[in-house]
Design brief:
Number of strands: 10
Cofactor: Zn(2+)
Organism: Kushneria phyllosphaerae
Domain FPG-type: 238-272
Distance between the termini: 29 Å
Order of helices and strands: HEHEEEEEEEHHHHHHEE
GO biological process, one term: base-excision repair
GO molecular function, one term: damaged DNA binding
Mean pLDDT: 96
Strand order of the largest sheet: 1-6-7-5
Strand content: 15-25%
CATH topology of the largest domain: Helicase, Ruva Protein, domain 3
Structural class: alpha+beta
Largest sheet: 4 strands, antiparallel
């Protein structure tokens, strides 16, 4: 399932073809939304944002289309005179003079006023989005040490979307490894330097995954593997999905455990077990 960086990349792609352009045609598959087609047709899209795994398509009258890809949803962006092929069912189409963005398969779609988004039953429970809400390492450090989160084990906390939206399973393993922390630690167990490093890695690793299409491994480790012709699955991550393979930093075999019912990969030497 895509994590925050992948959804942010979708928002970026959609923004390139929709933002600042007039929606000449719009189509909703669901009867409850069809009355809004006439309202949005002829308006300009102002921006396309992501918040966790949700997309927010904003219009000049301050209406926002909320959509969530759920498990099987996918956006298709193509020339306006083309239509998506395959077995997926179209749910939403936004068309400019030149392009169309189609949401396929997903059914979690609704229309909101921007000032009412804090009442949305899903968004209202989310923490800030690391890639959309101008989060800084100082913000993250303060949140880590807040009474709400400071007593939570890091392995569970990083997957909690109330903490920060968009961190998923591969990001969790990569963040903890690059911060040299075991999942059993709590923010309150960390000294100032460890907390600062963790805050920096939360933002740095998530940003790297966004910029490099899901790649979180450090360049110094991945480039020799790429040059040697190794497959992407071997060099994409520093520890995730690399059980029994040697740690890039120390050579110790990477281990895999289940934490919060999800796979977690770590180096038993680098992460202080």
């Amino acid at each position: 399932m895509p994590e925050g960086p992948e959804i942010r990349r979708i928002a970026d792609r959609m923004g390139k073809v929709l933002a600042g352009r007039t929606i000449e045609d719009i189509w909703f598959a669901f009867d409850r939304l069809k009355p809004f087609e006439a309202r949005l047709r002829g308006q300009k899209v102002t921006r396309v944002d992501s918040w966790g795994k949700a997309l927010l398509t904003g219009f000049e009258d301050d209406h926002v289309i909320y959509s969530h890809n759920q498990l099987y949803g996918v956006w298709r962006i193509m020339r306006r005179d083309s239509e998506p092929v395959g077995n997926r069912s179209p749910r939403l189409r936004l068309s400019t003079a030149t392009h169309s963005a189609w949401l396929m398969s997903a059914s979690d779609i609704s229309l909101w006023r921007r000032e009412e988004l804090d009442q949305h039953p899903f968004l209202s429970k989310l923490g800030p989005d690391l890639l959309t809400h101008n989060v800084t390492p100082d913000d993250i450090g303060a949140r880590l040490q807040s009474p709400r989160f400071m007593r939570r084990r890091l392995g569970a906390l990083l997957l909690d979307q109330h903490f920060y939206a968009g961190i998923g399973n591969y990001l969790r393993s990569e963040i903890l490894f690059l911060a040299a922390l075991h999942e059993r630690y709590r923010p309150m167990d960390l000294d100032d330097a460890q907390c600062q490093l963790l805050a920096e890695k939360i933002l740095e690793v998530t940003t790297r995954a966004w910029r490099h299409a899901g790649v979180t491994n450090l360049r110094v480790w991945r480039e020799p593997m790429i040059e040697a012709g190794e497959p992407r699955g071997r060099w994409r991550h520093a520890v995730f999905n690399r059980a029994t393979l040697p740690c890039h930093a120390c050579g110790t075999p990477i281990e895999r455990v289940m934490v919060s019912s999800r796979r977690l990969y770590f180096c038993p030497r680098c992460q202080g077990t």
